[in-house]
Amino acid sequence: MSEQVAGNETNKVIEVNSDGVPAGVERQCTPLQSAILRESKWVTDYVRENCFKYGDAPMNPPINHDAKLVSCDRLVDWVMYRVGYTDQVERQGMVVYHATEQKRDLPGWCELQGFERIEDVSKLEPGDIVFVHPHTSAAGVVYPGHTFIFAGFGADEGYSYRYDCGKDERIQSVQPFYEPLINFMFAYRPKQIASEAEEQSVMEN
Q1: In angstroms, rounded to a whole number, what is the distance separating the alpha carbons of residues 25 and 152?
Q2: Tens digit of pLDDT for each residue in 50-73?
Q3: In angstroms, rounded to a whole number, what is the distance separating the alpha carbons of residues 71 and 85?
Q4: What is the pLDDT of residues 80-89, one digit of tens each?
Q5: Contacts of 91 (CB under 8 A, 6+ apart)
Q6: pLDDT category, 13, cuts 50, 70, 90?
Q7: Are 6 and 174 contacting, i.e. CB atoms less than 8 angstroms apart?
Q8: Which 3 state secondary structure label does DSSP give 59?
Q9: In a 3-state reduction of DSSP, which class is residue 21?
Q10: Are 3 and 159 in contact (CB under 8 A)?
Q11: Alpha-carbon torsion 7, 13, 18, 21, what sign?
């Protein structure tokens, strides 16, 4: 299918397949990466069609989204939940930065899941969870101010595709977006969830 994406800075028509993968990116994707982009497309379509607003959801949206609030970090939570990472906190969900609880801090949660940390922007792959816009706390801790799902590099230098619910205009737009990736800090690459049989084999060995 082919969709015109509102907020797309080049005003180009972004073609995405049924998995939400931009044209030209699909050949790079593993099954997990394709699943992440498919669920990213599903969630962003769902929140747009159901008139969600930007805000601090009181409950983790994949568990309970009656409040109809979503944000950059809750999009990531929702997508990860739909691909099988259901071990998430119920109240609020994981946020882009939490100073005291690792399981509520999205980068900390990624570490707990054993995701690979990526620190070179040129090494990004579709489905990576990207963190940008560094801020500094009163205690001197540098932390990210924003996150999104990376959907692949574009043909134009410095441009890439993303799924992003960081403000109302994004939530109300057809996604993915195509825009420059700036203020990169780091990213995490989700790994395939082990099957019960694989987990049992690891335990036995």
Answers
A1: 6
A2: 999 999 999 999 999 999 999 999
A3: 18
A4: 999 999 999 9
A5: 58, 59, 60
A6: low
A7: yes
A8: strand
A9: coil
A10: no
A11: negative
Strands 177-180 and 184-189: unpaired
DSSP 91: B
**Do residues 168 and 54 make contact, with C-beta atoms less than 8 angstroms apart?**
yes
Residues 6 or more apart from 135 whose CB is under 8 A from it?
Answer: 97, 142, 143, 144, 145
- Which domains can be identified in the chain, with CATH numbers? 2-193 (3.90.1720)
Instruction: Determine the pLDDT at residue 25.
Output: 73
| Closest C-alpha to 56, from 44, 67, 42 | 67
Mean per-residue pLDDT for 179-194? 93
Residue 52, strand partner residues: none
Segment 112-124 shows an average pLDDT of: 96
Q: Angle at the Cα of 170 (from 15 to 177), degrees rounded to 5? A: 30
Q: Is 195 exposed, middle or buried (0-12, 13-18, 19+ CB in 10 A)?
A: exposed
pTM, rounded to two decimals: 0.87
State how far the Cα of 178 lies from the Cα of 161, in Å rounded to an integer: 5
Q: Which two tokens stand for residue 49?
A: 């069609």
Q: How many residues does the chain have?
A: 205
Share the mean pLDDT of the chain. 88
Q: Considering only CA atoms, which of 191, 199, 129, 194 is closest in space to residue 164?
A: 129
